[in-house]
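ok posting inputs for the heme C job
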Amino acid sequence: MKKIIYLSCFAALVLTGCKEKIDSIGPLSPNYNLTELEERLDTIPYFPTAYNMPVIDGLPPVEVPADNPMTEEGVRLGRFLFYETELSIDNTVSCGSCHHVDKAFTDGLDFSIGVNGARTTRNSMSLINIAYSEKQNSIHNLMWDGSFSTLEQQILEGPVTNSLEMANTWEEVETRLRAHNHYPRMFRQAFGITDKSEINRELVAKAIAQFERTLNSAASRYDQHEFVPFEYMDEQELRGMQLFIGDAGSVNAGKDGECAHCHSFTRDKAVFGRFNFSNNGLDSTGNSFMFPDPGFGAVTGNIGDNGKFKEVTLRNIALTAPYMHDGRFNTLEEVMDHYVSIGHGTSSPNVSNELTTAPDLPNLTQQEQDDIVAFLHALTDTSYVNKVEWSDPFSQENPWQENQ
Ligand code: HEC
Ligand code: HEC
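and the output
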């Protein structure tokens, strides 16, 4: 790849007289004034390298939108922008502030903290395998309430301008990025722009979405178990797995915890979430108007959807406490207590009948509940925690240097 860049720089040199290696300025001090030549983008080679999406055992291929093909340069720019606090009005908050890699890209809080200490109204969500949430046949794919369809849309309409998150305007973000010492060059390399004025919100969203579509991993003990049974999961975890799958699995061995309906289990959907919207019985309300947070209903305008939230992935669930859209449960044991209680009077108008009619769920013994929790722990994957490509580039000494 380096070779190509040098060759093309050579071509550019012949044609335009570009300075040697102009594509790798850096590290620069923040006050460095770019020369007129360095300011120009058309002298920088535009030679994007198609991003080679790793094939991950157990996960289907990621579907990439035709209008945002992934490139090495786009993913790299997206990583910088994901961790860029300049996106927020007072330069304090980045996407990474509320999505930490070591917590499967959540933040450990019930409600996240935006600029000026503002608190979000919902709990941060994991971004591992987020690309699999973008279902082609649905416009309600992302967020607890399904308010966004694609990753690009979530970035354009979500955190940057949300007053509780980054509280910025896109005009301001565009102005800052156009005036930046490094980003114009990176936008050039990723998207072939020829002038700084072409840096806009759509390209920011495309780059961050490209980065997000790389955040895929399936290297938990459960995944290893699929290939080497009985080595990676112990007896208790295997019992928990059976209860979790129940008769959704091929073998019906006794009791059914019914979890797999909504937190899909089958091998080709190894993402552990159906990603539909349902009410899992958190709030006991007399009628559909009384939910403290109407969730999906506020998005669809359908009263019958009030109280429904996204059936999220349970991969890495042990890393993403506290739980539910409002972070109301601190532990997985509390989550299990909740599910078992549904058959004992906790109810609201539209609790999913996959839960209300579950014959075994209310009767799970403490041991069986603990078994399910043990199984959930086998879904923890920390293989990516120290991955440089997913890490905050600004924690490096010279973030702008090539190949970091
Ligand atoms: C102040 C904290 C905060 C910041 C900053 C933030 N997020 Fe989030 N993120 C959240 C919260 C909270 C939710 C869930 C909100 C909801 O559903 O209402 C969320 C949800 C998401 C989702 C949906 C995940 C899913 O499974 O549906 C995506 C994608 C996402 N964020 C990406 C980003 C990106 C990209 C950025 C930066 C441009 C960002 N977030 C900045 C807190 C934050
Ligand atoms: C009818 C569908 C359905 C079934 C069945 C179901 N869940 Fe859920 N689950 C959901 C929904 C919807 C949410 C999000 C609810 C919210 O936050 O309002 C959720 C959330 C969770 C969470 C918290 C996720 C997070 O990121 O905070 C855990 C853990 C969980 N479920 C585990 C289980 C287990 C274990 C079972 C089986 C005992 C189960 N679920 C059965 C629909 C279901």
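notes: Residues 154 and 354 are 30 Å apart (CA to CA). Confidence is low (pLDDT under 50) at residues 1-27.
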